[in-house]
Amino acid sequence: MPYDPSSAIQDYTVFGEFGDVNPSVTDSSTYTFLSPERMEELFDHEIEGCFLYSRHWNPINKYLSGALARLENSENALVTASGMAAISSVILQICEAGDEIVASRTIYGGTYALLKNFLPKLGITTRFVDIKDLQAMREAITPRTKVLYCESISNPMLEVADIPAISELAKAQDLKLVIDNTFSPLVIAPLQLGADVVVHSLTKFINGTSDCVAGCVCSSKAFIDSMLDINAGASMLLGPVLDSYRAASILKNLHSLHIRMQKHGENALYFAEQFEKLGFSVYYPGLPSHPQHALAQKIMTPGFGHSGMLAIDFGSLDKANQLMTMMQEDKVGYLAVSLGYFKTLFSSPGHSTSSEIPKEEQEQIGLSDGLVRMSVGLDNDIRRSFERVKDCLVKLGMTGK
Ligand code: PLP
Question: Domain 258-395 is classified in which CATH homologous superfamily?
């Protein structure tokens, strides 16, 4: 059946026990059995509707995982305690000592540090490439490569991955294509475009209220089962379990994701167009000037915009810092990392969320000192918000030209 995101949204509705409109949260780490034989049976075989121990599964995490599987149209999903927990367990599930990863050179700083600094301690190494250059990707693959890794829209450069082309490369060499879709839930459906595994930081758009940290993995039933294997599953054995109460609050927020993504996209497009009109260099896939705008049009799911993230080059760190400080004072939004909140958030990635990437590599990917990353909020009157931005620019004497 073809993937229809609007039906996926309808499908978020789940029935609660005892008729609650929201599923009840079970406040238990362990579950009772009527017979020892049944307990033994359940220990290594999942039985629909039965629970043994909360690190394996619990009812609310199952509900949330089911909703996320429908969001990404995957056979199954698994929620985790953070986006980094999802990413690290997926990689540790697939790779062993001696294996290699080919990853995009523009990815979230924490993921970059995991691949560059941490995983080599376990004998897993990464080659970072410009994923716009498919030939470079092809050349980076060796007989030890197991994973191709990138973000569907990259943090912080807003580069759009050509998932269909990269997936062809992965399939031809029998590699797993792992895509971080944190910047573009509903906007891009990586599994429909050929990816094998999708990871999310639920901390961002999917939860949308910046009140918790969480993550998820969406993939085939076989892959999720392997992550939960009691003898060898990365998720089972490393134990990055999401707390039940948080799973319940994320599930409730998920119901409004489709409306929020539309509004984030509409508002971000307005900011992007206005900054560009003022003559600043703007990175936003919804702008015709974005180098992968045509690709974005081709692979994005119609009706959900181009995501709420943009980056603007203000020329120098000093100017960027002055503007961010004033925008916070003048109530445009908050000087804060993270994204997907209902208020606009802005930060300087080179000096925060991408500071793990060495300076010379930042320069190669175009991450300048004056770059500001913005997660545009759900403001009802985005024109008035941009007037406030313009006032700040005028007070600071900043012009784009
Ligand atoms: N992936 C992306 C694209 C991110 O931006 C982040 C965090 O900023 C993460 C993953 C990590 O997520 P978490 O902070 O939930 O571990």
Answer: Aspartate Aminotransferase, domain 1 (3.90.1150.10)
